[in-house]
Amino acid sequence: MPTRLPLHLLLLLLLAGAAHGHLGISSSSSTDGGGGLLLLLPADSSSDDDGAGGAATRRTVLRLPSAAAGEEEEEPPPEASACEMTYGFLPCTDTAPGNLFLVLAYGFLMFKAATYLSAGSELLLQILGPGIVGGLFLPILGALPDAMLILVSGLSGTKEVAQSQVLIGMGLLAGSTVMLLTLLWGSCVVVGKCDLSENSTAIDSRDTKGFSLFGSGVSTDVQTSYAARIMAISVLPFIIVQIPQIFKLHSGHRLAVLLGLIVAAVLVLAYCLYQIFQPWIQRRRLEYAGLKHVMSGVLRHAQMHVFGRLLHEDGTPNIPVIEKLFHKIDLDNDGRLERGELQAFIIGVKFEDVDLDSNLAVDQVMADFDRSHNFVIEKGEFIDGILRWLEEAKRSVVTSGSYSKKFLQDFHTRTRDEHNLLLGNDDNDVEAIENPTWTSFKAISLLLLGTAMAAAFADPLVDAVHGFSNATSIPSFFISFIAMPLATNSSEAVSAIIFASRKKQRTLSLTFSEVYGGVTMNNTLCLAVFLGLVYVRGLTWDFSSEVLIIFLVCTIMGLFTSFRTNFPLWTCFVAYLLYPLSLVIVYVLDYKFGWS
Description:
GO terms for molecular function: calcium ion binding; calcium:proton antiporter activity. This protein is mostly helical. The protein is 65% helix and 6% strand. The protein is built from 22 helices and eight strands.
């Protein structure tokens, strides 16, 4: 009786076969009735046929266990496959295309795990509010996928296997840090650039000079430079663990690893406590949440008070309705909105129970809309500003494509909840959430699902990277350095670029602060996990070139960003060039000078 294969596993087989170019599926059986499926991938279809024995040696196999319950899996012929299935049932292969497919598949699952952890963390923040949650749990949860991959890279197998695979963990650690401070940092400068004034300060929302290397750029606040200094300090454990290599000592290596582990753990705790007792990032989020609540209130008011729908059925903006809203606010009909007219309108908008400062709200709207900086809002500026608000509302609320009153109501409810929670209205936190029980259940479920996925697929991802490295003879460090950070940091990178695209100093400050915070957690929490693994398993610390690039990139970018708040566009090229330079340094030191 033929073996039945679930549809999703069959698709996996077909995709892997398509990646190789040929597909063959056969049922293996033994005299005692055991069976399984073998996916035969010809290694060289151009060679001549030399008999059954030769065909077997030219074929590699992506193996899956038999679907028959209670049957023991028959061992494949030694010449058919040398790979070992993770957990005994996940597919494996010895070919480069097959392993590349598995790296992409498991990398996507790790990306989803990171996404679930991020979504669950945000919901948890809604339930419990800022403070310990925002300062302690959220940074740790954000670094969890990287920490999990680093842990499993050297946790299983013999000491020799662990020593070989732990290089993947170091590649992820270095690659994640370098990617955040080079590619992501430079991209945020590019998408967030504004015109620079005479004193080199970026002018919010004004971008008329194109890609002028010295005439455009970004500005941040002083507190963001504090975050950069903290990031620079976080490289201290790397220096400690390298002391025996720096001074060419023949002993004390394990002691240096232990001291580095202790210092990294202390820095993790100190950084989390700093976030709890000095929550300036959360105060900045409060300001941003206040602006979003003004946005939602104005849009909701316009939607509900006879102006008509702001969006058509297909989601496109209704410009005539936006123009009606402008003329309603323009009390003296002079074609422009002055501060008093705007404040009168905002006071008339019902913001429910949120204690909103109308003066601050007017300041925020004026700063967001008045791109000509003439202290009035022209009609064109008003229309452009409302369109930007609508686009942000679309991104904030997931809908099925129908933009109606319910869509804006959802956005208004969300922004009200964010404002209340960040403001610290503890008495109203539960009431601000329509269904706290369901929200709590959803938050816990997302966190558990993300954690379980990260734990389950970290090991097979490491195995796939190691297999791809063996099949292509490319060092596993370079594969994990380039590819694995994309799986664990993609969602954070997209959020950072969206924030930076608003071209505002306060959102850019928050964006860069998050980048520096992510690097700080890599240099402390993730390094602590790595050092703990090296110490417990008795592995050899032989990562001088890798530590050097982390130290160089963090030190250069840390010093570069710690003592300045204005960054012209040319600075993005400094960040971009550090990425390939890091790879070149590791290659030259390890394979030309024999550091490894």
